Amino acid sequence: MMKVMAFVGSPRKGGNTSKIVNSICTGLKENGHAVEVYYLSELDNVGCKACDSCQANKVEYCAINDKMTTLLPKIADADCIIVGTPVYMLQLSGITKNFLDRLFTFYRRSNHTARYLPGKKYMTVTCNGAPAEAFGNVTEYLNQLFNGSFKMKNVGNIITGNLTNKDDILKQQGVLEQAEELGRKLS
Ligand SMILES: Cc1cc2nc3c(=O)[nH]c(=O)nc-3n(C[C@H](O)[C@H](O)[C@H](O)COP(=O)(O)O)c2cc1C
User: Fold this and answer.
1) Structural domain spans, the chain
2) Residue ranges of the NADPH-dependent FMN reductase-like domain (predicted)?
3) Which CATH architecture is the domain 3-184 placed in?
4) pLDDT tens for each residue of 98-120
5) Cα–Cα distance between 90 and 93 in angstroms, integer?
6) What pLDDT is stored for residue 80 in this prediction?
């Protein structure tokens, strides 16, 4: 049994990103894993303040007193992290970037290493209005961060497109099946 935390980076609850992430979670639960889904728009995360408290080891995780800080020890303890984001203005959404910035506490600028995260698994989901292949750059960036900087293990990248309205992904049942399968086969 793995502990999985899934983060939805679209403020549109029940939208395409949310539906795909929830399909992965359905598969994960069938597989016996424990999953918690977090909607980043509900965290009121104002972003990293660059106070350097984490880098100077003045606090265990983060000096900001908000919900995101309470999630940091849970992230340190999780086995797998899922991050789903819509593409906004050619990039990942702002709330997703604000979330990623708060993971700075896991990075050690002094020697360019990461603590707690190396070896954990991660999956990414991206959704855009343009055809799927148009914004591979967002997935590349996420892989650069999670695999490159944090030394986490990539267990799946779902890249989707042609999604404008909230329910458009329902016309791409194959993607939702692929997402469920990804969850079902995580080991
Ligand atoms: C502010 C904003 C900016 C967007 N920018 C882009 C973009 O640059 N390229 C693109 O292909 N789609 C863009 N879209 C469309 C969304 O990526 C697409 O509808 C996606 O499926 C939304 O995910 P959701 O259903 O989970 O909210 C944008 C949507 C919004 C609201």
Assistant:
1) 3-184
2) 2-157
3) 3-Layer(aba) Sandwich (3.40)
4) 999 999 999 999 999 999 999 99
5) 9
6) 98
